[in-house]
Amino acid sequence: MVTMDIFLKIALSSVSLLILCPTRCILAPLSERIMEPCGGSRTSNTQLVLTTIPQKISEFAQIQILQAKSTQICSESKTLKDNFYAERINDQDLQSLLDNISSLERFPKIPSTPSEPKRFLQYLKDCYKETSAAVVFVERMLTDETRESITSTSSRRMSFFTEYGKLKENLYTFLCQLNIAVKNFDSSIDNFADTDTIDKSLRSLSTTERFNRDYIILRDVTRLFNYFTKCFSERTCFVL
After folding, report:
1. Over the stretch 206-223, which tens digit does the pLDDT of each residue have?
2. pTM for the complete prediction?
3. How far apart are the first and last CA of the chain?
4. What pLDDT band is residue 151 in, cutting at 50, 70 and 90?
5. Averaged pLDDT for residues 28-44
6. CATH code at 156?
7. Would residue 16 count as lying in a domain?
């Protein structure tokens, strides 16, 4: 039996591997990274070392790991949202509007009312699909922020390139942990988002429109992972 401490070390090692991995691996095509979050590109000769577990761990240990990571992502995305507001929005009336409008099309929706608990395996797969959709939106934010950093004539504007990149890698780490948990059931991921998840109308925006879009994405990533954290801690969304 693999202890929880060992699993924690394995999970944390994936973060170090993502940081140390050569650029061509980190920048593997989006669809490939979503399909293989622990391993990088199918076609690259330089891949991340697959995070494998020699034996099954308990469902309790899986829940603890996933809860810890979802809590971290929720906290860090909220901090990023608040910093983004201070730097890019800084308008309380606009913030109130953005906080209360609907989610962007195809971003995962949080149930407004409690639903029937799912079997744990199915819940893990649903989390994977929803997180992979969030990844697509964050990847778009990062792409546009990279372009902004290169072309912007405003030297005073703070860049969020590093923060977006960190959020993206945390999401991939969470996908990797979900993938491991699913494999412990001798199953595999069979449903995930692709690059078409984000509507074309959200890809070509003015600077102001992009700032509003990014704020909404950060808002909803925070809400999504707050929901995941609650589900894992209270175990109300699934049955073992």
Report:
1. 999 999 999 999 999 999
2. 0.82
3. 19
4. confident
5. 69
6. 1.20.1250.10
7. no
From the list 81, 66, 84, 79, the residue with the least C-alpha distance to 130 is 66
- The 8 Å CB, 24+ separation contacts for 19-23 are 19/169, 21/46, 21/48, 22/46
Q: Which helix (H) or strand (E) holds 238?
A: strand 238-239
Q: How many distinct structural domains can be found in the chain?
A: 1
Residue that has been written with the tokens 């049955």 in this structure: 239
DSSP 88: I
**Dist. CA 107–CA 138, nearest whole Å:** 11
Q: Which of 68, 104, 115 is nearest to 215 (CA)?
A: 104
Is residue 64 assigned to a domain? yes
Q: How large a percentage of the chain has pLDDT more than 70?
A: 79
Query: What are the structure tokens assigned to 174, written together?
Result: 């969470």
3-state class (DSSP) for residue 194 = coil
| CA separation for the pair 55, 52 (Å, rounded) | 9
The pLDDT assigned to 238 comes to: 96
Range of the domain at 89: 57-239
The span from the CA of 164 to the CA of 182, in Å, is: 27
Q: Which residue has 């922020």 as its token pair?
A: 145
Lowest mean pLDDT among 37-46, 59-68, 170-179: 37-46
Nearest to 176 by CA among 58, 3, 7, 11: 11
Look at residue 4 and tell me if it is in a domain: no
CA 175 to CA 131: how far, in whole Å?
Answer: 7
3-state secondary structure of 46: coil
Asked if the structure places residue 36 within a domain, the reply is no
